Amino acid sequence: MISMAPNLRHLRAFCVVAEHQSISRASEKVFLSQPAITQAIAKLEQTLEIELFTRRTDGVFITDAGQLYLTRAERAQEFIRAGIDEARKIAQIRGGKSLANLDQLVSGVQLRALIAIAKTGNFSLAARLVGISQPSLYRAARDLERLSTIPLFRKTGQGIELTPAAEILARYVQLAFAELQQGQMEIRAYKGVDSSRIVIGTMPLARTHILPTAITNITKRRPNIEISVIDGRYEDLLHGLRYSEIDLLIGALRNPPPIDDVVEERIFDDELALIVRAGHPLTRKEKITIEDLARYPWVTPREGSPTRTIFENLFARKHHPRPKGIVEASSLVLIRGLLMESDRITIISSHQSRYEQEKGLLVPLPFDLGDTRRPIGLTTRRDWHPTATQLEFVDALRTAGRNLI
User: Fold this and answer.
1) Gap between the Cα atoms of 358 and 348, Å rounded
2) Is residue 179 in a domain?
3) What are 166-198's pLDDT values in tens digits?
4) Domain range spanning residue 295?
5) What is the pTM of this model?
6) CA distance 160 to 76
């Protein structure tokens, strides 16, 4: 189920009170009565279980905890405004009185409905995901469409899909909600209960040493944090990163980055090797030729991946047909099993097969692949504002990578 939607009116009141240090002046700005603003702040403090303001006769002054949450609340509202602006551009809508202050008119429930429909493509499933009745969700979604005057939904043979404008709005809304979740984690950490959650998208090159080492180190210092590791294709992981479902990616970098709203950070360079089982017939040869390699079956990455391209070029440069009977696989467990049970060859990162080589199960073949160095590192959103715990984990990843050099 999608987490409870924030009360955007309460958030706006909180930010304006912090700006003016006065409930009366904030009342004039957000067109709410002073009792309503006082109640909004009280409910927000009750939800976060901490004081956000110190009340004095000369005004209200934000606390240290309040300042932490203010940063997240302001970023969340900015994401919502940016999403509305981008959606308007895509829909080619200009002007419009109802759009002038749309970010102050939409509700958290309406935005939560948008995200649920984006995830499910169905009003019934979206209602179940949110935890409200289907009529309530349908009404919230259509109210958002009416308020924005932007076409957000269209029927398909499979259900409901978002228009391009709605898709970009949904992305920014997810970023906004993620900011508020980050803020809640920071408040808990401020109170001495670090229950941070870190979601990592990982590609094969990071799974065998860098990531386990970093996780072990961070959990020794912060035993209460939760870490979720997601394996998958780069394209899927990148989508999760850009929609704030994943905090960071670790693995082979793309140069240049595939899209300008992410940034990459190199940790170390990796090289490929041809790996076989110990005792493979080719391990007894002093000099291995391309003809030797072509005589054996192979395990390779899927087509389109950088390593697969290197494999294809290995034979193309020698004007030699590549081997037949290829098995495509990315799971190291499967690759290891295939190598151990046959005379197959694979092309893989030296670091990725590090443990198997140390145990004497797998060995590299003495064959020069040329310069196969690839940068391995982190990919994050350009606008990512990590918590202190997430920053500490990033440092743990950097340290684990440097220790490989």
Assistant:
1) 15
2) no
3) 999 999 999 999 999 999 999 999 998 877 899
4) 272-372
5) 0.82
6) 27
